[in-house]
Amino acid sequence: MFKIAIVGAGPAGVSAASRLLKATANKNHDEFHVNLFDRSLVPWGLLRTGVAPDHPEVKHTAQTWSNVSDFPNFQFYGGVNISDLKKAGIKSELSLKELLDCHDSVLLCNGAYEARTLKIPGAESRRVINAQKLVGYYNGDVMQDWDLEPAHLQGNVGIIGGGNVALDVARVLLEPALLKPSDVSAKFLELAKEVHKISLFIRRGPFDLPCTTRELRELIHLPSVSNVIINGLDKPLGESEEYAKLMKSRKVQERKTKRLLKLLAESETDKKSESKFGKGKTVEFNFFHTPEINYESSDKISVEFSHRGETKRRDLSALVESLGYEKTPVSEFITDVNLDSGKAFAFDRPIYMSGWALGGAKGVVGDSTESSRLAVQSLFDDIENGILKSLPRKNMSSIEHSNWENWKKIDEEELRRGQENGKQRDKILSISEMIKITE
Ligand code: NAP
């Protein structure tokens, strides 16, 4: 029997656990015992705390793995932080070395959750809000601080970045009422009622926009949005030579950009004509805008951008920084990481990595589960080749943790409260309340 520890109960971690346990159940491989660790008391990682509330179909993919607990060789260690760095406020912690002492190997699926921040003067202003915090707020993430001020989320909110997180935040801020039946946190709905304009500031041009077509379409097609403005270009997007060239291209690898830019170029024209009929909300894309300095006053933040050698100043109620995430390695002793196979070493022992922990913060749920499939295959190969061996290991039993039965109690309570309040789910918003429910 191989004892495997998986760190992180997001899609990468739970899909890997499910793969190992199914291999055991189907008797088509060695027997595995899986201990799944997460610093949170509850599973699903970004499916629960990152995916926007108006994407329930993505959140529901968690159901694919909800039966992991039915396998006899599975144990969930919720509230256990695996890191060489001690972190306050979390129930228990183990280092990677301690984890390896108790298991034959470790599969790291701990994501990448260190949000990038602006390094400009004035970035410490309370009106500069990190997207991670805002996403945590609307998703009821108990691992985030909850100190947003209502006055900051109204009028014209600026967002730095053009990735899918920026677009999620824009959508959620512009149309919070649509989220009422979802699992959105009620506190957030109170906060974000008065935003009428979102200005996205993107440091590169439209041809390098990192978001995807679906997310862009959802934003500009929001019922209340009647103005789409594109600033920062020499001429309208649809009239540029580069655009004309792209539209003529038959290259398969350019198809995605082609769809994205066609949508963007056409939306500007479409929405302009619609806006004649009514006063709606506005989405503004400012390309080639790099933030340089912020000045906060009592009722606004003024942001200076450099735009092709010129300085432009904008007054906003808040500035959301949505700059992506850095990897968050659990240990400094991880070496020889192979980005293709997910193989690595720690303390001269083979370990495995997948999802954002391996490749950084990019891609959707399917990319993370595919990355886990490859890492589990590497683990199978190493067993076959005698590189990974099952040996007597130390016992794990004494570590304080929250188990899967506790999660089921929290889950049931959230669903019950949701039903009571006409929502898909009403999340428990503090660790202490979660613990009370499990007692
Ligand atoms: P991202 O896609 O990496 O976008 C980050 C944005 O921040 C980029 O526009 C980047 O500009 C900009 N940026 C970074 N540092 C900056 C700085 N110092 N100053 C100004 N701009 C800066 O990150 P993300 O939006 O957080 O998304 C992370 C991953 O999650 C992506 O793969 C995304 O597709 C995925 N995701 C998917 C969904 C979905 O499928 N619905 C939803 C959310 C997230 P440059 O491009 O110039 O670097």
UniProtKB/TrEMBL annotation:
Residue span, FAD/NAD(P)-binding domain: 2-173
Residues annotated as transmembrane: none
Cofactor: FAD
InterPro entries: FAD/NAD-bd_sf (IPR036188), FAD/NAD-binding_dom (IPR023753), Ferredox_Rdtase (IPR055275)
PANTHER family hit by this protein: GLUTAMATE SYNTHASE 1 [NADH], CHLOROPLASTIC-LIKE (PTHR48467)
GO MF annotations, alphabetized: oxidoreductase activity
UniProt-recorded name of the protein: FAD/NAD(P)-binding domain-containing protein
Keyword set, alphabetical order: FAD, Flavoprotein, NADP, Oxidoreductase
Pfam annotation, one family: Pyr_redox_2
Domain of life: Eukaryota
Native species: Oikopleura dioica
